[in-house]
Specification:
The chain is of the alpha/beta class and about 270 residues long. About 35% of the residues lie in helices and about 25% in strands.
Length: about 270
């Protein structure tokens, strides 16, 4: 694996070389990290990919949320459904001993599952030596978002917050179809509905105080999904914008692929 002096990995270093780095490596995750994921345009794919990476490394992992997720997204993990902490923790412990992976939610409200309380994540982190992956807000399947005042819901034990935005939003109009909580997005970006989304808008949504990193805990990483050839070029511009503006985001990562197959195509230290 080769990196340039700016801390950038990109496809021009060789496609085969890039495939050797998975998302776990790109994020520099540790086996006991508590990861909160927020934003729009690929949160669940990122979580599924990290769960696969953990499985390949034989690292115990728990998947959960402090918001809602679609039941079909987590069915493969045969999730624990428990409304009381003690009962849920016992089942999670047993699943981790048997298979090294568990998912935990409080209840099913079809077609979704309701996540656990953030305090439960904190308690579990004290009792289990594992990686916990937490989906911390919703996005109504949009590509970008701005958070409401009550979100995201971040556990205190969080060691890494990953903010997700989709590069596929660039060039599309600001609308309810592309932008979750559209009035907040418009206010944050000082733009009108119907205006085209620019790469700078993604940078601003990551940079601004009430953008996607609102209430973030621990190390902050911006993850830009959907990096085709044009998207990869925009990723470098976003990373450079953040560097010049000054930010406490430590990494900017561009990814391609969906589901469990998300992989990094650019990793830049900011």
């Amino acid at each position: 694996m080769r990196w340039d002096h700016a801390g950038i990995y990109s496809d021009d270093l060789g496609r085969d070389e890039g495939l050797r780095m998975d998302l776990w490596d790109g994020l520099e995750l540790r086996p006991v990290d508590i990861v909160a994921c927020m934003g729009a345009g690929g949160k669940t794919s990122m979580i599924m990919t990290l769960a696969r990476c953990a499985r390949e490394r034989h690292i115990p992992v728990v998947i959960t949320a402090t918001t809602k997720m679609f039941l079909q997204q987590v069915t493969r993990y045969h999730p624990v459904i428990a409304e009381e902490y003690e009962a849920g923790q016992v089942e999670v412990d047993e699943k981790l001993k048997r298979s090294g992976q568990a998912a935990w939610f409080r209840e099913v409200q079809f077609p979704k599952v309701i996540g656990i309380h953030p305090e439960w994540v904190d308690e579990l982190a004290l009792k289990q030596s594992c990686c916990i992956l937490v989906e911390a807000d919703g996005a109504a399947q949009c590509l970008i978002k701005a958070p409401a005042s009550h979100e995201p819901v971040i556990p205190r034990s969080t060691t890494m917050t990953i903010g997700v935005l989709s590069l596929q939003a660039i060039g599309k109009p600001l609308s309810p179809a592309t932008s979750h909580r559209l009035p907040l997005v418009l206010e944050l970006l000082n733009k009108k509905a119907g205006s085209l989304i620019e790469w700078r808008d993604l940078a601003k949504l990551a940079l601004y105080r009430h953008g996607i990193f609102q209430y973030a805990q621990g190390r902050k990483v911006l993850l830009l999904t959907g990096a085709d050839a044009n998207g990869l070029s925009y990723s470098h511009k976003v990373a450079e914008y953040l560097t010049q503006a000054g930010t406490d985001i430590s990494l900017c990562i561009a990814t391609e692929g969906v589901g469990e197959l998300m992989r990094p195509s650019m990793v830049k230290s900011l």
